[in-house]
Amino acid sequence: MKKILSLLALSVSLISTASAQQDPKAGKILDQMSAKYQALKAFKANFTQTLENDAAKLKENITGDITVSGQKFRVKLNGQEIINNGQTMWTYMKAENEVNISDYDPEDQDVSPTQIFTLYKKGYKYAYIQETKEAGEACDVIELSPENKDNPVFKVRVTVSKVDKSVKSWKMFKKNGNRYTYTIRKFQPNPPIDATTFNFDKTKYKGVKVIDLR
């Protein structure tokens, strides 16, 4: 569970307080990107995750989506659904038709999806890498490096559109040789949400087994 939340979040983006050790060009781009997303009341993103490991000759793709509003989120990925209303978290496994309920503690997560646009502000150094094109669109590539050397992630590369400062993709490099690339396929600002969006309604999951871990 932590793995999924960590990857998704470390995924969609980043931000920071520029200091003398930081690249001011990269900081300006990240600030513009951050302001764009934080101005939204909510957003929904459909993405493709590609996992590669050269040593293991591994390459696999999965698709998912995430909806975020403030401290609340709902994630669907690889047969799992993770719902958080800011206090309680439900983790539903489709194959087992089982849901685990736990108290939500953002400090207990590697990275929370609600932190994705402020991640670069603490614990990461960043630098401008290059200009590139993604799907024919001019973009900037920025590299983030964790200050904590014990972090299993040793760098993250974020690709940001020059046109509207949206995140087009990002790649996370882990010390175990795994590389995770996330590509945004569709982005919806301010999607319709209601009281049921960030709560688990077991009446919609016939025969679901409920395990309360609180």
Provide an overview of this structure.
The protein is mainly beta. The protein has a single domain, classed as Lipoprotein localisation LolA/LolB/LppX (outer membrane lipoprotein receptor (LolB), chain A, Clam), CATH 2.50.20.10. The protein has two helices and twelve strands. It has a twelve-stranded mixed sheet with strand order 7-8-9-10-11-1-2-3-4-5-6-12, covered by helices on one side.
Descriptive terms for the model:
12 strands, outer membrane lipoprotein receptor (LolB), chain A, 12-stranded mixed sheet, 2 helices, 12% helix, globular, 214 residues, mainly beta
Q: What gyration radius follows from the Cα positions, in whole Å? A: 17 Å
- Count of distinct structural domains: 1
SSE-based structural type: mainly beta
How many strand elements? 12
Order of strands across the widest beta sheet? 7-8-9-10-11-1-2-3-4-5-6-12
Summed up, the helix count is 2
Q: What is the CATH C-level name?
A: Mainly Beta
Main beta-sheet annotation: 12 strands, mixed
**In CATH terms, what is the fold-level topology?**
outer membrane lipoprotein receptor (LolB), chain A
What is the typical, i.e. mean, pLDDT?
A: 86
Q: What share of residues is helical? A: 10-25%
Low-confidence stretches: 11-20
What fraction strand?
over 45%
CATH architecture: Clam
Looking at this structure, what is the CATH superfamily? Lipoprotein localisation LolA/LolB/LppX
Shape call: globular
Distance between the termini: 16 Å
Order of helices and strands: HHEEEEEEEEEEEE
